[in-house]
């Protein structure tokens, strides 16, 4: 259930943005920030999650943020200011879940990290896809308020199911050591991991944001672009089901080779975009190639947070650092790279920029896999 509510409360909103704007008396352009607010909350609050978990315990913190998420979801139906406030509360809650979930897995299932990582990432992908598919039909048949109420009910159900876990609260061990703990910012491999996390997030959100626009600009219809965008998202479901289990069984050398190889698919897809005509089949192949590549990177990052740390506390520390910096890049990357089209009136600089990002990300993977443990 945690996986089911990690994306749905905000990823399903863009499809019904016009209805919300009409209902609350705002403009669609003024509500565009709703898609960026959660990412900004991820960037600002991810680093705080490990501290909160150390004080409250993992299970109690997750119960608290689920309650906050429920309040935020309900607030969005009141008026325009509460829509923004509610979205920010949801962003804070999801930021904490993003960071703490790998620690929850390592604390409760240290021998089945791959399986349970696969479980929540796959659940997240399926629920996100289903919510995006039913958002418009449900809103058209009822109202946008009813759709948000359904999302709130899903969050409420997750909270109710989670309540029994509060009695099994895991706290990070307060290990006293004569050796002073090195700040993560002074750990070069942790910084490299942060760079990787930022670049993979930037790559995913930029492609998700701009691929439909690029597709229509070469001559395909909006319906075709929408279908291809759905394929780009759907491919993440089967990929997320197999990547964590496979990655967890590989040696660091094999992980480096395989992940850089899969990342290279992005370079192939980007190169194809430079020369592809307005042919649906060709652009379908491009979306499949790009989708497989970026969909592999996120579960690889999440499982690596467990593989590269020694205990659940270190997992939370590294996760907080990586996701905070990563989502900061992701929140500004699509906007800045999209601006290049306005500046040059061409998608070529945009595509070249993504290729450079991909190459840097591949280099960071090689360095990450030089060490068995980062902390």
Explain what you see.
Helices cover 77% and strands 0% of the residues. The protein contains 15 helices and no strands. α6 packs across α14 (312-344). The longest helix has 33 residues, at 312-344. The protein is globular, with a radius of gyration of 20 Å. It starts with 7 loop residues before the first helix and ends in a 7-residue tail after the last helix. Mean pLDDT is 86; it is low at 175-179.
CA-CA gap between termini = 30 Å
User: How many domains comprise the coordinates?
Assistant: 2
State the CATH architecture of the largest domain.
Up-down Bundle
> What structural class do the secondary elements suggest?
mainly alpha
The CATH topology of the largest domain = Growth Hormone, Chain: A
How much helicity do the residues have?
over 70%
Give short descriptive properties of this protein.
globular, Growth Hormone, Chain: A, 375 residues, 2 domains, mainly alpha
How are the secondary structure elements laid out?
Layout: H1 8-11, H2 17-24, H3 37-45, H4 49-56, H5 58-75, H6 80-108, H7 113-141, H8 144-162, H9 188-217, H10 222-234, H11 236-249, H12 252-275, H13 280-307, H14 312-344, H15 348-368
Helix pairs in contact: 3-6, 3-14, 4-5, 4-14, 5-6, 5-8, 6-14, 7-8, 7-11, 7-13, 9-10, 9-13, 9-14, 9-15, 10-13, 11-13, 12-13, 12-15, 14-15
């Amino acid at each position: 259930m945690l996986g089911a509510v990690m994306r749905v409360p905000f990823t399903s909103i863009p499809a019904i943005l016009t209805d919300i704007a009409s209902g609350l008396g705002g403009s669609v352009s003024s509500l565009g920030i709703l898609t960026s607010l959660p990412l900004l909350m991820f960037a600002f609050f991810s680093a705080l999650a490990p501290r909160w978990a150390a004080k409250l315990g993992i299970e109690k913190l997750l119960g608290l943020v689920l309650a906050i998420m429920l309040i935020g979801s309900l607030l969005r139906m009141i008026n325009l200011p509460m829509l923004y406030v509610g979205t920010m509360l949801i962003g804070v809650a999801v930021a904490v879940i993003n960071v703490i979930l790998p620690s929850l897995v390592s604390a409760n299932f240290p021998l089945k990290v791959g399986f349970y990582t696969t479980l929540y990432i796959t659940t997240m992908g399926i629920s996100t896809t289903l919510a995006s598919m039913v958002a418009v039909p449900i809103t058209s048949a009822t109202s946008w308020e009813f759709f948000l109420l359904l999302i709130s009910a899903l969050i409420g159900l997750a909270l109710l199911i989670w309540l029994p876990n509060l009695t099994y609260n895991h706290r990070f061990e307060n290990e006293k050591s004569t050796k002073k703990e090195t700040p993560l910012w002074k750990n070069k491999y942790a910084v490299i991991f942060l760079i990787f996390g930022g670049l993979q997030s930037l790559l995913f959100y930029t492609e998700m944001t701009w691929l439909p626009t690029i597709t229509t600009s070469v001559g395909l219809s909006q319906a075709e672009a929408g279908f291809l965008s759905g394929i780009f998202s759907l491919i993440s479901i089967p990929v997320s089901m197999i990547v964590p289990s496979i990655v967890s069984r590989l040696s660091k050398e094999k992980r480096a080779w395989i992940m850089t190889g899969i990342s290279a698919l992005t370079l192939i897809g980007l190169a194809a975009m430079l020369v592809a005509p307005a042919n649906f089949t060709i652009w379908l192949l491009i979306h499949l190639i790009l989708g497989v590549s970026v969909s592999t990177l996120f579960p690889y990052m999440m499982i690596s947070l467990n593989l590269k740390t020694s205990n659940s506390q270190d997992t939370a520390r590294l996760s907080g650092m990586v996701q905070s910096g990563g989502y900061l890049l992701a929140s500004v990357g699509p906007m800045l790279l999209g601006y290049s089209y306005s500046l040059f009136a061409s998608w070529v600089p945009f595509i070249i920029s993504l290729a450079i990002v991909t190459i840097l990300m591949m280099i960071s993977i090689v360095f990450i896999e030089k060490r068995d443990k980062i902390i």
